[in-house]
Amino acid sequence: MSQKDIIILGIESSCDDTSAAVIKNEAILSNIIAGQEIHKIYGGVVPELASRAHQQNIIPVVDTAIKKAGISLQDIDAVAFTKGPGLLGSLVVGTSFAKSFALALNIPMLDVNHMHGHVLAHFIDDEGKAKPKFPFICLTVSGGHTQIVLVKDYLEMEVIGQTIDDAAGEAFDKAAKTLGFPYPGGPLIDKHAKLGNPDRFEFSKPQINGYDYSFSGLKTSILYFIQKQVRENPNFIEENLNDLCASIQKTIIEILFKKLILAAKDLKINQIAIAGGVSANSGLRSKLSEIGIQKKWDVYIPKFEFCTDNAAMIAITGKYMYKNDIFADQTVTAMARLKI
Ligand code: KG4
Ligand code: ZN
Hints:
There is one protein chain. 42% of the residues lie in helices and 18% in strands. The protein has helices at 47-69, 88-105, 114-120, 168-178, 186-193, 216-232, 236-267, 282-295, 312-323; strands at 7-12, 18-24, 27-34, 78-84, 109-113, 136-141, 146-153, 156-162, 271-275, 298-300. The strands form two sheets. The chain has a five-stranded mixed β-sheet, sandwiched between helices. The protein has a five-stranded mixed β-sheet with strand order 8-7-6-9-10, sandwiched between helices. A hairpin with a 5-residue loop joins strand 1 and strand 2. Helix 4 runs antiparallel to helix 7 and helix 5 (186-193) packs across helix 7. The longest helix is centred in the last third of the chain and has 32 residues, at 236-267. The two termini are 35 Å apart. 5'-O-[(R)-(carboxyoxy)(hydroxy)phosphoryl]adenosine (KG4) binds next to helix 4 and helix 5.
């Protein structure tokens, strides 16, 4: 007997990307993302401006996602939205939109944890690409989070290690700012790192117990090193940009892998995934493949479009909540802080 198809509209607005996606079971019919250029000039996301841009973008983004999916409103079984964690003013836009949408169409709502979304992006259908088997470990690295997550089932996850200060994405972005790059600088460090020597400069690495991370010491060590060099040679950054990027990237990746390897060994798990914006980093991706071969891990690396914030990951998470009858009602509110 064939099961009924489930069509879900997903909405993501936790930070500075307004996104809407339509999925049918595990297949994506559309995934529209509107970024916000406005933050570039400020060197970081300005919450009030992000919220305003979400308000402008949300209707055209949802409209485009539905049209591109080739479905009608009546086909949608439920609306999934990011409840948190994230910027409150941004989350409120997606949450309020989802509430009105659900009320107007008389369909259920699914309040998704953004971090579940990053992890479950691995279950989006992708031309026969293998999906992780439970239990697996997911290194979830974004602008706001750095977590080692033990994923026991679709909606059963435990954070076993996390940053005690800055996130890995912040380490990339702050180092990039020191080098004079606009926000977000992570992708620019990646681009220049490809042309540089990763062993040219050494930066300090944290000594933290267990599976936790710390990136604030690295940020300070990069800042002091660059300030000192620039005092001696004002052209130091330009003359060494590629090597600086490659060395910074290598240090961040080494810090990330030290704890990931430890966790995989202690838990005796060889299903290893990465997720979140920083998982788009080419150095991190190739290092995971390399270590995976060495350690006999099965590694899972998301497609680029599902690394950074997107609504497809919210829709697929919503699908698993739908199947488990985990619905929200009209009293639901956005939450800036929300545990996995
Ligand atoms: O998951 P995401 O889109 O948003 C959050 O939930 O935070 O992650 C954004 C972060 C930013 O810090 C950005 O610099 C970083 O991901 N990022 C990268 C790359 N692409 C995005 N960092 C390093 N290399 C990249 N290629
Ligand atoms: Zn994210």
